[in-house]
Fold:
Amino acid sequence: MSFFDYLPCYILNHTPKIIAAFEMDFLRNLSAFQKAVPQGEKFTMLLQLGWSVELDEVANELQIRLAEAKNFFPEARFIVLANTAKEVEIIKNFNEVYLANHNAFLDPARYPVAKIGKRKFDAIYIARITPFKRHELAAKIENLHLIGSYSEKEKEYFEKTIALFPHAVWSQKVPSFFIGRKICESACGLALSAVEGAMFSCGEYSLCGIPVVNTRNMGGRDTLLPEFACRYAEDTAGSVAENVEFFVKNQLEPHEIRSAFIKLASEHKSQVQDLINSIAGKKVYLPHKLNIRCRLLPHTKLLHGIRRIK
Structure:
């Protein structure tokens, strides 16, 4: 257990300083970063997107808050890593941006590959039980594994939602190192939100070699999703169940799904790797998820974190 409180970011390189964070983890905590990072210090900040910038209100907030950050840190370089090509077109009007979907930074070594044959579940949905995840669209899948917690503020919503799944297995939490094993037990993964970010679990499905029943959406999860391993359902429980049944009856080769995802992801990751290397003047190790919004050991926080000043 760490004795210190750390800001939501990760130092990828110390000299010169290169920091990674999700955009609003940094921008909405700007006052805390102002206290912890000396004014006038030179650094490069890589900002991943946690929500779709294709929405006007999200793009406007990003532009306004980035302007505030640049005002306080005039020597800093801010680089946004967009999840979609459309986001690149929007952001390039007010900031440096690269197309680098955050699922590209998943570490393939953490994910086993599913085996051909009958699976324990027809589908798996890894998602916090909250309204935007639209769990109700999975209500007609009887052989289903749900993995995801809920906020105490949304407990009433959780109770109403989980009641829709009397035949499903619900796991509130699965340790990250074991999530791949659970994915491999299902014939396909579900991605049902209409808008969010790139959805890490969607990339995890592909790395484990299972196809995805998807809905039309904004946020970027489609960017690295192999086309042959995805079926789009209408926004109805019946359509979702029908597409799940298709994958139950028509299994795809898991290694082909995984390889296709890695090929797409490598194009995104390699350009960021080259960019960071050029800034650092050496090769910089890029950890799983860039180690942001990840549970880190105390010594890792000590070496790569920024301590909060109270």
